[in-house]
Amino acid sequence: MNWLRLVLILAGIHTIIAQTPPPTAPSKTSPPSKKKVTKPKKPQKTSAQPPKEIPMAPPQIPDFPPKSGPANEVEQKLDGALLSLLRSLKSGGAIKALADASANKLPTPGNRIKVDITVINPSTVKDIETKIRETRGEVLTVLDNRVFAWLPLEAIEPIGALPNVWSLAAVRETVNQK
Q: How far apart (Å, rounded) are the C-alpha atoms in residues 144 and 162?
């Protein structure tokens, strides 16, 4: 019997034997029942299919401002902080410009800003000083071709438009200035 069981196990029929009840002696009163022996269902093979790809949305191109660089000759002369301040002044008035100056940590007492003006020709510094005073600004120091002054916010553009001005830069407070 052991060799038969071994053959059946190797043939994969061992499950049929395990599931069938042991034979019973036929009774004399009842006819023998004919039971169909059913084969066990084979386990379904799980196919190793790759997961379905989820369609990706096309990459979004960010909307950049149309023009972030200097737009004209005056804006080309300004440093980043003054350029931002001038644009805020033009688009939202003095309140927006003061908020922008505060965000850039620029002191603005009396709605004025401290600037460093570089002049092309040192002989024209006196003309620049006169223009600063005409725009209600205050000249602090003159060093060769550089003028340090307090300018009203509205005077940034007219001073920058002067032909002898090479550049304007905002002066930030340092630890020693406090």
A: 18
137 with 160: CB under 8 angstroms? no
CB 148 within 8 A of CB 158: no
List pLDDT tens digits, range 14-67.
455 555 566 665 555 555 566 676 777 776 666 666 667 777 777 776 665 555
C-beta separation of 81 from 97 below 8 A: no
Instruction: Give the three-state DSSP class for 8.
Output: helix
Q: How far, in Å, CA of 115 to CA of 82, rounded?
A: 9
Which residues is 78 bridged to in the sheet? Answer: 168
Residues 152, 154: Cα–Cα separation, whole Å: 5
> CB under 8 Å, gap of 24 or more: what pairs does 88-93 form?
89/153, 89/154, 89/156
Which stretches of 14-169 are DSSP H helices? 14-19, 73-77, 80-103, 125-134, 156-160
- Cα 47 to Cα 68: distance, rounded to the nearest angstrom: 56
Instruction: Give the pLDDT confidence of 116-137 residue by residue, as tens digits.
Output: 999 999 999 999 999 999 999 9
178, with CB counted inside 10 A (0-12, 13-18, 19+), is: exposed
CA distance 17 to 24: 15
